[in-house]
Amino acid sequence: MQKYLKIHSNDNVAVALAPLSKGLVVELGSQTVTLSEDIPQGHKFALTDIKTDEPVIKYGSQIGLAKEDITTGSWIHTHNIRTGLGDLLTYTYEPIHPEVKKTEERFFDGYRRSNGKVGVRNEIWIVPTVGCVNNVATAVERQAQVYKKGTVEEIVAFPHPYGCSQMGDDQEGTRQILADLINHPNAGGVLVLGLGCENSNIEELKKYIGEYDEKRVRFLVAQECEDEISDALDVIADLADYVGSFKREPISCSELVIGMKCGGSDGLSGITANPTVGAFSDLLISKGGTTVLTEVPEMFGAETLLMNRCENEKLFDETVNLINDFKNYFKSHNQTIYENPSPGNKKGGISTLEDKSLGCTQKSGSAPVKGVLSYGDRVCTHGLNLLSAPGNDLVASTALAASGAHIVLFTTGRGTPFASPVPTVKIATNSTLANKKNNWIDFNCGTLVEGETLDSLSSKLFDFVIEIASGKKSKSEEAGFHDMAIFKQGVTL
Questions:
Q1: 206/188 Cα distance (integer angstroms)
Q2: How far apart are CA 84 and CA 353, in angstroms?
Q3: I want to staple 405 with a disulfide (CB 3.0 to 4.6 A). Which of 12, 259, 278, 431 is the partner?
């Protein structure tokens, strides 16, 4: 196993791929460095002397500035490096126009809906319009399991605390996300469960849902029922007959939409799992498919790499707004833009937001940016899309599902059991985590520093995603986990 790595030829740091002991002599090409202290796995050490306020370079880019003089062989982390990020920036479009060559078509077994859309699951979803009926929704979910028949795979409720006492963008966001989920093709049938007096009531929500198949989407207002649970179960029984009639059939991967997210990152995230997902993204796009990258605050410090890959200047301008709108959101709440990484990230070896962002954006691969989406927007352009959403795991993954992602690929160096409304594939950055938390982790990218090549591993990930799209359950699905969360920004009445 490789024990250390210099990622880019211009870097003045290297990364420990395994715990390294003080006194170890590190050889990188013609350079020899003796470690002056122990270096934990995933953490950085200096390959040269770095003076106070000089840049620390990783991935070939600046990840921060030295707080103090750093000597060759020293551990570099939060004690001696600080962010170099500022507030709003002025950007210049310097396009590089990357190309992704077409490759052979691949197929998965999915469900073709009556409107022509494609799903990778055939589930019945219970979507509350307001948090007041959450307990009713979960009670219906429990009692409705007897109606799982034919090809009905799951009957799932998605409780949430919103739908009333909201204003402005929050109310719009809730309505749009709920409508997106109601329209999601992974749901063969949907029961929209309302209370009756809420702001986002069923009649209001229908304006956001648009045209719908009356066999697929059914509505129930609890205040109009004598026994809302009994009535809801009758609706589920009818939906089950309809949903159970769908069969899987071969569908081109050009119709597959995959969301990309990371959380609980460590120092290996940008070396193993995220580059593998990036190579997967390029491979899917080469077959006409679509990927969606989100968590905008974790683009700060690496945003120009995405901006310059925008297909045209309009998309560049939209990406600038994507970044600056989120910075203004932080500033409007009197919060620092770079209040990141998290304690778990730091323990894993990530020192600054730039360090995290440069690793995070590896998931985008090398394809051109074809679309930029606001929060709640649905994908309409094949290829790589950028989506506005925060870094919070549940909120961002729900936003990916709402945008149309059939599956979310979630890379992690720390591990997490959470799920989202769609199959959520956990991808480990290191083999220790993959072996320890086998009940959470679906795919291991730790082998990338154990002799496996990126081409081999990304090809295996592609095959695995095809299996998931064709019906194989992710670990969180096997556990029965289905989460959702909506972005809240403003006042609650």
A1: 18
A2: 9
A3: 259
Contact residues for 306 (Cβ-Cβ < 8 A; gap 6+): 293, 299, 319, 361, 364, 369, 386
The predicted structure's pLDDT at residue 85: 86
Q: How far apart are CA 151 and CA 140, in angstroms?
A: 20
Cα(200)–Cα(196) distance, rounded to whole angstroms? Answer: 9
Identify the H or E element spanning 44: strand 44-46
The token pair at 433 is: 């985590």
321 vs 306: CA distance, rounded Å: 13
Examine the pLDDT at 340 and tell me if it is beyond 80. no
Residues 397 and 259 sit within 8 Å (Cβ to Cβ): yes
Alpha helical stretches, state H, 333-415:
343-347, 353-360, 393-403
Residues 6+ apart with CB under 8 A from 230: none
**Whole-number Å distance between alpha carbons of 409 and 8:** 26
Given phi > 0 = left and psi -120 to 50 = alpha, else beta, which region is 64?
A: left
The amino acid at 14: A
* Pairing assessment for the beta strands 290-293 and 383-387 based on DSSP bridges: parallel
Q: What is the pLDDT of residues 96-137, one digit of tens each?
A: 988 899 999 999 999 999 999 999 999 999 999 999 999 999
Could you tell me what percentage of the chain is helix, strand and coil, using 3-state DSSP and rounding each to the nearest 5?
35, 20, 45
Between vectors from CA 447 to CA 363 and to CA 349, what angle results, nearest 5°?
60
CA distances to 153, 255, 338, 398 from 117, in Å: 18, 9, 40, 19
Query: What order do you get walking across the sheet with 369-373 strand by strand?
Result: 369-373, 383-387, 290-293, 257-262, 407-412, 424-428, 443-444
Residue type, 55: P
How big is the chain, counted in residues? Answer: 493
* pLDDT exceeds 80 at position 370: yes
Question: How many angstroms separate the Cα of 356 from the Cα of each of 90, 115, 271, 327?
Answer: 22, 41, 11, 17
pTM of the shown model? 0.95
Q: Smallest Cα–Cα separation from 104: which of 248, 249, 253?
A: 253
Give the phi and the psi of residue 202 in degrees, each rounded to 5.
Answer: -60, -45
Q: Give tens-digit pLDDT for 421-449.
A: 999 999 999 999 999 999 999 999 999 99
H helices present in 244-311, as ranges: 273-286, 303-307
Question: For residues 175 and 166, what is the distance between their CA atoms, to the nearest angstrom?
Answer: 11
Are the C-beta atoms of residues 372 and 319 closer than 8 Å to each other? yes
Give the model's pLDDT for residue 337. 79
Provide DSSP, 255-274: G-EEEEEE-S--TTTTTTHH
